[in-house]
Amino acid sequence: RHGQAELSNQVGAATGLAYTSVGGDTLQIEVSLSAGKGKLQLTGKLGDVMKESAQTALSYVRSNAESLGIATDFHEKYDIHIHVPEGAVPKDGPSAGITITTALVSALTGRPVKREVGMTGEVTLRGRVLPIGGLKEKTLSAHRAGIDTIIIPKDNVPDMDDIPESIREELTFHPVSQVEEVLAIALEESNYAN
Amino acid sequence: RHGQAELSNQVGAATGLAYTSVGGDTLQIEVSLSAGKGKLQLTGKLGDVMKESAQTALSYVRSNAESLGIATDFHEKYDIHIHVPEGAVPKDGPSAGITITTALVSALTGRPVKREVGMTGEVTLRGRVLPIGGLKEKTLSAHRAGIDTIIIPKDNVPDMDDIPESIREELTFHPVSQVEEVLAIALEESNYAN
Amino acid sequence: RHGQAELSNQVGAATGLAYTSVGGDTLQIEVSLSAGKGKLQLTGKLGDVMKESAQTALSYVRSNAESLGIATDFHEKYDIHIHVPEGAVPKDGPSAGITITTALVSALTGRPVKREVGMTGEVTLRGRVLPIGGLKEKTLSAHRAGIDTIIIPKDNVPDMDDIPESIREELTFHPVSQVEEVLAIALEESNYAN
Amino acid sequence: RHGQAELSNQVGAATGLAYTSVGGDTLQIEVSLSAGKGKLQLTGKLGDVMKESAQTALSYVRSNAESLGIATDFHEKYDIHIHVPEGAVPKDGPSAGITITTALVSALTGRPVKREVGMTGEVTLRGRVLPIGGLKEKTLSAHRAGIDTIIIPKDNVPDMDDIPESIREELTFHPVSQVEEVLAIALEESNYAN
Amino acid sequence: RHGQAELSNQVGAATGLAYTSVGGDTLQIEVSLSAGKGKLQLTGKLGDVMKESAQTALSYVRSNAESLGIATDFHEKYDIHIHVPEGAVPKDGPSAGITITTALVSALTGRPVKREVGMTGEVTLRGRVLPIGGLKEKTLSAHRAGIDTIIIPKDNVPDMDDIPESIREELTFHPVSQVEEVLAIALEESNYAN
Amino acid sequence: RHGQAELSNQVGAATGLAYTSVGGDTLQIEVSLSAGKGKLQLTGKLGDVMKESAQTALSYVRSNAESLGIATDFHEKYDIHIHVPEGAVPKDGPSAGITITTALVSALTGRPVKREVGMTGEVTLRGRVLPIGGLKEKTLSAHRAGIDTIIIPKDNVPDMDDIPESIREELTFHPVSQVEEVLAIALEESNYAN
Ligand SMILES: [Ca+2]
Ligand SMILES: [Ca+2]
Ligand SMILES: [Ca+2]
Ligand SMILES: [Ca+2]
Ligand SMILES: [Ca+2]
Ligand SMILES: [Ca+2]
Ligand SMILES: [Ca+2]
Ligand SMILES: [Ca+2]
Ligand SMILES: [Ca+2]
Ligand SMILES: [Ca+2]
Ligand SMILES: [Ca+2]
Ligand SMILES: [Ca+2]
User: Fold this and answer.
1) Which chain F residue lies closest to E11 (C-alpha atoms)?
2) How many Cβ contacts (< 8 angstroms) between chains C and D?
3) Crossing angle, helix B97-109 and helix B48-63, to 10 degrees?
4) Smallest CA–CA separation between A1 and chain F, in Å?
5) Pairwise CB contact (< 8 Å): D34 & E63
6) What integer is the mean pLDDT of D80-93?
7) DSSP code, position A27
8) Is B36 on the interface with C (CB under 8 A)?
9) Which whole-number Å values give the CA distances from D76 to C36, D38, D39, E72, E138, in the listed order?
10) Is D82 within 8 Å of D31 (Cβ atoms)?
């Protein structure tokens, strides 16, 4: 059932770690592209902060398209839809920023996201990764869902002390300060040169 | 009177199962196409979650147009109107996702929806079918309306225990995990090759 | 004074039956066309359900233009304004659906609406006519206004028992289940072949 | 000071009679045209009903442009601004409908509005003039402002009994049922053939 | 510091007199033009009435462009931004109408606004100047800020009695009834023929 | 960790000083450009006053593009996104005006912002710098974050008395009255002639 890690690597979908009043959870970020004119659609009962986070992720990708191996005119050729399933559950906050960026780059490059990777971190326009809250709860939930590789903001390293050692030992943590590092860890190699 | 199954197979209309505070109900999802420029219109006193569900269904269809046998440029040629009759009754939630997808694909391919089929399930951008609530009440209402084939999310199979055995035996259940399975069950074969 | 039936057959105007907290009433639906680009304007202090009803009526007409004898590209050539006079009186609900459809088809075909006809019924995207409330009050009000032919949804036939027999005998009722029947009853024959 | 009749005939401005909780008042409807693309701007702290009334007046003019002696493509060539001065005073209601129509036709034809004329009446899409409230208070206020010719809806004729005879005798009343009659009374003859 | 008159004549900026619950104040109206397509931007925490006042001022300028010596197609070539500094202070009301008109005409003609002039008055679409409130407080504040020439609506002349004689004697008042008079007083002569 | 000065000079990012109910803080203003059509996107949970401040900064840059060494048609070629990280923290007020202007000019000219500079000040359409509140708290926070050069509005000079002398001596203050002065202080020299 859902709340579990993906069964295979996926293009255009990445796993984020969420933190709500009732504990940690995992969530999927799905991105679809359709022939279009650059319209961005955001669904899944997202709050304003999460919508702005998605817009920031998209602008990061647009202004860094060339170095990411993406056609610089993609914004004129596709409509982009970002959806976060379980459409009746409200979601908010900036901490899915790097997950959204990863799903976007995956969809636009065709590089699959490794299924065993989960991640959490705010992203800025320049690709900096900012710290988030609830690392302990997020990690426990990711562990329960079968995730074994977790990308976290470098500024959250001190919070790793709060995670029970038995869990921590079963997981691989990647602290990062730039979203380029996230992409290098989470995306499969491209099969062909860009 | 209404609250009854359709009398014949229809193009562009599918039967969903709804669940409200006063019990289960069936609802029709109607789709009409007009020469246009890709405008999506949603009516029938739909809440925000249901509107996002329809947008998600449409994006699934757009980004999978080719494999669904639909012209990939349909979005530039038609305006699409999705209406849920009984316009004064508020409706919400994500559980009509697969019904909306079915009605859309029917309208766009011309393949009729089998009149004896009812369905319930959230759909994601990638076509995954997620579990819903109120399966018992929905099933009882569908049975009363003359539906005899019911498509449900695979993750709702355990909830089938709650349906009285006498009713359950008169119905055929199809548990599914991808919306492609829904379309194979609910739509008539196309009369001509795509 | 107003609250009376029209004095002559009109193009682009039809008489609906309304039901408010203070009893039944008749209302005029007016449609005007101007050279334009497909903009739909809705005025007359209409609630959201009534606005959606008008949008549904328009989509029905657009997607059935050919069989209605209307140029299929009308939507690109005209702006359409639907107004319900007595602009300070709030109006809502789906029961003017068939009246709006009739006024639209009249305006687009030039066929006048018979002045002695009043009507009430929700319309769906596929042209089905759904039942409405307040049939008794609506009928009494229409009778007072000089209407003698009333189109009602087939599912409302049982409610005709509630109308005093003395009134009922002075009126002709047309129960219908599809809006095509409404148009056949309410519109004058076209003077020329389509 | 304001609250007085205009000193000369004006193009694009007409005098309406208003009725508020503190009594009757006169108001000016001003219309300006600028080279543009059909944008309608409405200012003067107007309520929704009054805005819809202005949209209805404009649609009447657009769909009757030819018979009004107005170029049928004016809507593509001009932006239209309708303003009601004393911008801090809230105004609402449909009773300025015929005044707005008059000011619009004056601006679009160049025919001046006779300065001694005041008017009140709701207008419909088809140009019918519907009755209004507060005739007595409106008339007294118009009289104080120096207006001597008042156009009223035919259905308000019975309300003329409420106006003190001394005032009534100093005024000329024109009861009308169609806005074409309003234009014939309020506008100066065109100086040149259309 | 601010709250003082400008040190030199400025193009595209004019000084208005404001009146708030805590007394009179002066405010600058700033106008900037950029190559564009006729977009109007209004900033400075302006209330709806003040925004409508700016739109009315702009329409006055557009429809009188020729007689004001402004290219009649300016609206297609420039985006116009009107800003009222001290962006955190809410501002509202129609009394900056003539100040906005003056700043607009200055920006569009290049004629500087005389730095010693302050002004207050509502403007209508036809350029009439309507009376305002708080003349005494506005005048005292303008005097404190070093303004010595004040343009006021003709209908506010009786309110000049309320201004202490010692102040009144140090100021020059220009009562006006049309905005053309305002422009003649406040703007420097153009250096070149239009 | 964040709350610290940048480690290197950056293009398109500048450090502002903020003042909230819980004391002073520093914030980064990030600007990204993408090939586009002049759309302005503002994110970071910004209040209306801060959004208007960004619009004012952009209009200043647009109408002074030539003298700033920026192509005058940049607005037609780029979409501009201004983001203020820590997306969940509400931010408002006009005092980031000069910081936004600096980040914009940096992004559009390619001139890096000196990393040791922090700044605070409202900007007007004409580039005037207006005084702000909370100078003491802002300065203490900037000092803690490693900033050693602070640009302040000239009208805030008297407020420097409130800053403890020990801190004041470690900082260099630049009082300014025009935003051109800000740019001269904060931006590195361009490497090539404009
Ligand atoms: Ca979940
Ligand atoms: Ca810790
Ligand atoms: Ca029902
Ligand atoms: Ca169970
Ligand atoms: Ca009525
Ligand atoms: Ca009955
Ligand atoms: Ca008045
Ligand atoms: Ca009477
Ligand atoms: Ca001030
Ligand atoms: Ca006085
Ligand atoms: Ca901070
Ligand atoms: Ca001090």
Assistant:
1) F126
2) 69
3) 40
4) 32
5) yes
6) 97
7) E
8) yes
9) 9, 5, 9, 17, 44
10) yes
CB atoms inside a 10 Å sphere around CB A160: 16
Residue D6 tokens read as: 């205009």
Q: Which of E33, E120, E14 is nearest to E75 (CA)?
A: E33
E85-96 residues labelled b (16+ CB within 10 A) or e (exposed): bbbbeebbbbbb
Q: Which two tokens stand for residue F125?
A: 């359409």
Contact A122, F85 (CB under 8 A): yes
pLDDT digits (tens, 9 = 90+) for E23-80: 899 999 999 999 999 999 999 999 999 999 999 999 999 999 999 999 989 998 999 9
CATH architecture of D13-186: 2-Layer Sandwich (3.30)
Roughly what angle, to the nearest 10 degrees, separates helices E48-63 and E97-109? 40
- Alpha carbons B88 and D12: distance in angstroms, whole number: 43
B15-43 in b/e form (b: 16+ CB < 10 A) is bbbbbeeeebbbbbbbbbbbebebeebbb
Query: Does the beta carbon of D39 lie under 8 angstroms from any beta carbon of chain E?
Result: no
CATH of domain B13-184: 3.30.230.10
Instruction: Give B10's strand partners.
Output: B113
Give the count of beta carbons closer than 10 Å to the beta carbon of residue A141: 22
- Under 8 Å CB pairs connecting chains D and E tally to 68
Q: Render pLDDT for F140-150 as a digit per residue (tens, 0 to 9).
A: 999 999 999 99
Residues 155-194 of F with CB under 8 A from A: none
Give the mean model confidence (pLDDT) for residues F6-29. Answer: 90
Q: Quote the Cα angle for B113-A87-B89, to 5°.
A: 60
Kindly report, residue by residue over A111-141, the tens digit of the pLDDT: 999 999 999 999 999 999 999 999 999 999 9
**What separation in angstroms does the CA of E130 have from each of B99, C187, E17?**
61, 53, 15
Q: Does A124 reach chain F within 8 Å, measured CB to CB?
A: yes
The DSSP bridge partners found for residue B43 are: B83
DSSP 3-state assignment of D26? strand
CB contact under 8 A, D32 and E122: no
Given a cut of 50, whether residue E87 has pLDDT beyond it is: yes
Residue in D30, D116, D1 with CA at minimum distance from that of residue E64 = D30
Please give the helix or strand (H or E) that residue C185 lies within, else none: helix C179-186
Chains linked to B by 3 or more Cβ pairs within 8 Å: A, C
Please indicate if any CB of chain D lies within 8 Å of the CB of E62: yes
Torsion, Cα of A91, A76, F40, E14 (10° steps): -150
**Half-sphere exposure of residue A121, counting CA atoms within 13 Å on the CB side?**
31
One-letter identity of residue D90: P
Secondary structure (DSSP) of D70-107: --TTHHHHEEEEEE-SSTTS-B-SSTTHHHHHHHHHHH
CA–CA separation, E47 and D58 (whole Å): 27
- State which H helix or E strand residue B179 sits in: helix B179-186
Whole-number pLDDT of residue D28 = 97
Q: What is the SS3 assignment for D23? A: strand
Rounded Cα gap, residues C5 and C1, in angstroms = 10
Please say if the pLDDT value at position B75 is more than 50: yes
What is the per-residue pLDDT across B128-187, written as a single tens digit (0 to 9) for each?
Answer: 999 999 999 999 999 999 999 999 999 999 999 999 999 999 999 999 999 999 999 999
Tell me which of F40, F42, F51, F52 to substitute to probe the interface with E (most E C-beta atoms closer than 10 Å).
F52
Nearest residue to E56 (alpha-carbon basis) of E153, E177, E156, E179: E179
Give first-to-last CA distance, chain E, whole Å. Answer: 37
Among the listed residues D176, D171, D113, the one whose alpha carbon sits nearest the alpha carbon of residue D147: D171
Name the phi and psi angles at D16, rounded to 5: -105, 165
C37-46 pLDDT per residue, tens: 999 999 999 9
